[in-house]
Design goal:
This protein is an alpha+beta fold. It is 40% helix and 12% strand.
Length: 272
């Protein structure tokens, strides 16, 4: 657990990480700020939020957690939700019914962790649903450290939640990007003013992108096989140059896509 936990997880969350892994229902994967922090190592995050792709037996998960630690359940629905404290760390299991994964999760110390496209899509939804300052920081960090922009993220959101190009939720998300009146301060995150400046500067271009917004329904690639990944790998990979070579034998000058060794022109796995 040292590599994943270092600089990302507080001791309580690091302690229960393998216990949560042992209790995962089939197809479950980590989402939220902790999933992104594991990938980008940009901040500390304490909560372990798990999505399950369909309705699941919350009682079975509860019993599995009780066998490996002290469990205090704060909310439980029969087949959709389990919120609890496990040895003092907050954990959540939630049925993500109707949501489509754009990328296959990668394994980090045994835990399937959602891909950047899915994390950006879910973070934008949270912002539209009244996000916290840390959600804005997460979206800002994705754009600053990877090849995934907010404009692309709106497309990921539409794909993941199966909404049309003119769905009102898209406009609502874009409007929420610069609505900070009801966003509480968070001294653990950093300079709030920097976050607000970033989104206000990006807002005009994002608004303009909605006028020509286009979706690629049905053109997303199938998920790649599950593999073990390194913490922070997404940020490193996204800054690399494309590995392809031209006919003249020179290295392609474009930046590789996030999670790939190739740019959009040379990556056969992704739509160009």
């Amino acid at each position: 657990m040292r590599d994943v936990a270092d600089g990302v997880l507080p001791p309580a969350a690091a302690h229960v990480w393998p216990k949560v892994v042992a209790a995962l229902p089939a197809g479950a994967y980590l989402v939220g700020g902790t999933a992104l922090a594991v990938r980008l190592a940009h901040r500390m995050s304490a909560d372990l939020d798990v999505f399950v792709p369909a309705r699941f037996d919350t009682g079975r998960v509860r019993r599995a957690l009780e066998r490996c630690g002290v469990l205090v359940v704060t909310q439980a629905d029969a087949d959709t939700t389990l919120n609890a404290l496990l040895d003092g760390a907050r954990v959540q299991f939630l049925a993500a019914i109707g949501q489509r994964n754009l990328d296959h999760p990668d394994l980090f110390d045994g835990m399937p962790v959602a891909g950047i496209r899915d994390l950006l899509a879910t973070k934008l939804k949270v912002i539209g649903d009244r996000g916290e300052l840390r959600d804005y920081v997460d979206v800002m960090t994705i754009e600053q450290r990877t090849a995934h922009t907010i404009e692309l993220g709106l497309g990921y959101y539409a794909e993941r939640y199966a909404v049309g190009a003119h769905h009102t939720s898209l406009t609502h998300i874009v409007r929420a990007m610069v609505t900070f009146d009801d966003v509480a301060d968070d001294p653990t995150i950093g300079d709030r003013a920097d976050v607000e400046r970033f989104f206000r500067a990006r807002h005009p271009a994002v608004v303009a992108s909605l006028a020509s917004f286009d979706l690629t329904h049905g053109r997303l690639p199938p998920p790649a096989p599950l593999r073990e990944a390194r913490p922070g790998a997404a940020a490193t990979a996204s800054r690399s140059r494309c590995a392809a070579r031209t006919r003249a034998g020179t290295r392609c000058s474009f930046r590789a896509r996030a999670g790939s060794r190739f740019c959009g022109k040379h990556d056969r796995r992704l739509p160009g």
